[in-house]
Automatic annotation (TrEMBL):
Pfam families: Sulfotransfer_1. Belongs to the sulfotransferase 1 family. This is Sulfotransferase 1E1. InterPro entries: P-loop_NTPase, Sulfotransferase_dom. GO terms for molecular function: sulfotransferase activity. Residues 47-303 form the Sulfotransferase domain. It comes from the Eukaryota. The gene is LOC101888261. Keywords: Transferase.
Length: 339
């Protein structure tokens, strides 16, 4: 993998966070993507757009499928017959594969409205019209310790790591590379503006804890309704067991394109791998778990918050529904908690 380089956007969202924040902010990117990012900065954003923005391996696919169904009147038939990457394209993907600056944004430009677009870009690298027009953005964060582990398995399968690179090697590299702060800047900036009415901020952990409530909150955020029967269908369709065996949500085409580019050999891999929280504790040595815990604690402390704050695990979350709403767990919610 190429090392990180510094990139300065055309301008920063000073209408969201003050200039003094951006004066200190360093954006790191990987690969030769400056022209692409400058093009992204200027693209047309529409009022009815919905953008799912996350860091990699933070529940992006899970939220994409959820949001697409809500936006499209719970059309499970189309969802089961059309790949998610067609219904909700990953904005950066075409350029990553082809480096064709002229055609790289065609998948989102040709998408029928209302568009659901996925991106892994940081707040200051997103299209500037998102900050100005305030198109709807759904941001999902995740415990970076789990994200690092999931990321390792994914990029190793993609042929993007040397064969000798162990999971411990990869985690230590993520901790001590010069762009190690990028992950935390990304999380904190969206957390800081979470009260913006056009932004829905949640976490992978919240989705695991109470998927029903997250669905209700997304519906409210998008101005949609859902009945009890449809809710049960959603909970089943979005359960980890169903997502893992669903070829439409496992990015098979995207994975094949990446593996062709990297000349990766045959390898069995499922994009929806485990879907667990705190799984890093099972995969890393006790010494590295302790080192990683201390690293993350120190990184988030620089913003005056805790990791639980960022993950909305301190009973402070932006709910779009009655906070007193409670009901028994459905069968599929119980299944999800066991996975």
């Amino acid at each position: 993998m190429e090392g990180p380089t510094v990139f300065k956007p055309k301008r920063y969202p000073t209408n969201l966070l003050p200039q003094e924040h951006w004066d200190k902010r360093v954006c790191y990117v990987r690969g030769n993507c400056e022209k692409f990012l400058n093009k992204v900065h200027d693209i047309q954003v529409y009022d009815d757009d919905v953008w799912v923005v996350t860091l990699p391996k933070c529940g992006t696919t899970w939220m994409q499928e959820l949001v697409w169904l809500v936006m499209n009147d719970y059309d499970f038939e189309t969802a089961k017959n059309t790949n998610l990457e067609v219904r909700s394209p990953f904005m950066e993907f075409n350029y990553m594969i082809t480096t064709d600056l002229e055609k790289c944004l065609e998948p989102i430009e040709n998408l029928k409205h209302p568009r659901l677009i996925k991106s892994h870009l940081a707040l200051p690298l997103l299209p500037s019209q998102i900050w100005d027009k305030k198109a709807k953005v759904i941001y999902v964060t995740r415990n970076p310790k789990d994200a690092y582990v999931s990321e390792y398995h994914f990029i190793r399968h993609m042929g993007l790591l040397p064969p000798q690179c162990t999971i411990d090697d990869y985690i230590k590299g993520r901790m001590y590379e010069k762009d190690c702060n990028e992950q935390f800047d990304n999380m904190y900036e969206f957390y800081k503006i979470r009260s913006e009415p056009w932004l829905f901020y949640t976490s992978f952990e919240q989705m695991k804890l109470n998927l029903r409530q997250v669905i209700l909150d997304v519906c409210k955020f998008l101005g949609k309704s859902i009945d009890d029967v449809t809710m049960e269908k959603m909970l089943k369709h979005l359960s980890f067991a169903e997502m893992k065996k669903n070829p439409r949500t496992n990015h098979l085409w995207e994975i094949e394109e990446v593996r062709k580019k990297t000349n990766a050999g045959e390898s069995e891999f499922n994009f929806c791998r485990k879907g667990e929280t705190d799984s890093y504790k099972k995969e890393l040595s006790p010494e590295l778990v302790k080192e990683l815990d201390n690293f993350v604690k120190e990184k988030v402390a620089q913003y005056g918050v805790t990791l639980n704050d960022l993950l909305l695990l301190n009973n402070e979350k932006k709910s779009y529904t009655n906070s007193m709403f409670k009901e028994k767990l459905s069968f599929w919610e119980k299944v999800a908690q066991r996975t």
